[in-house]
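Reader question, answered in our methods column.
A reader sent in the components of a multi-part assembly and asked whether the whole thing could be modeled at once rather than chain by chain. We filled in our standard form and ran it. Here is what they sent:
COMPLEX SIZE: two components
ENTRIES:
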Amino acid sequence: MPSLLIIAHGSRRAASNDEVRALADAVRAQPGQTYDHVEAAFLELAEPGIPDGLAALAEKGVTEIVAFPYFLAAGTHVAQDIPDAIAEFGARYPQVGVRLTPHLGASIALPTAILDISGLDAAG
Amino acid sequence: MPSLLIIAHGSRRAASNDEVRALADAVRAQPGQTYDHVEAAFLELAEPGIPDGLAALAEKGVTEIVAFPYFLAAGTHVAQDIPDAIAEFGARYPQVGVRLTPHLGASIALPTAILDISGLDAAG
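And here is the structure of the entire assembly that came back:
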């Protein structure tokens, strides 16, 4: 099975980076989830960076990675910086496949998720 | 039924604000969704602001609003600025109930949503 790398922007505020790491932990712990590994990486300002985060998975023997940009808005980071970082990794680990999904804000599943989220949390 | 206000940060980049408005349109158009109205508002840099977005719903006769902070990280905006803006509205429209949900990044439904999103989009 593939592994999942959640790619966040990264923040000078350590608590924000920890929120992303906790999110990766929560995704990994979901009952029935099928990714071999679920990790977080950061475009900037926090560790690991994207190439290192991908490489850490490769060093665990992972050969297929789904890279999920945890970004709300399209922009240079999503359109260029993240693909560039993945390409940097690809040059070092050509045997590992990386499938880049749309960013969170453009996901076709987000509208349904927002209905679930707003309903669940409002009721909870 | 309540109405849903999706509260985003707002951006100097018009396309980012339009992404949020398109997201509200997509949520509104979801089959089976039960909110009477689904709209977007912005903390800053774009219109409508939060009090005006809430007031526009109130002027349509809405008496119950779910306010969903479309933010990834906790911070001053989520902890203080958004509640302050809702309180500003509440002072003008005390008959309208506003229920503030956790922000997107803290939603208990987000880990499942990310699994759905990464699987759907990777397969799509």
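What stands out: Chain B has one domain: 3-123. The CA atoms of residues 50 and 58 of chain B lie 12 Å apart.
Send us your own complexes using the same form.
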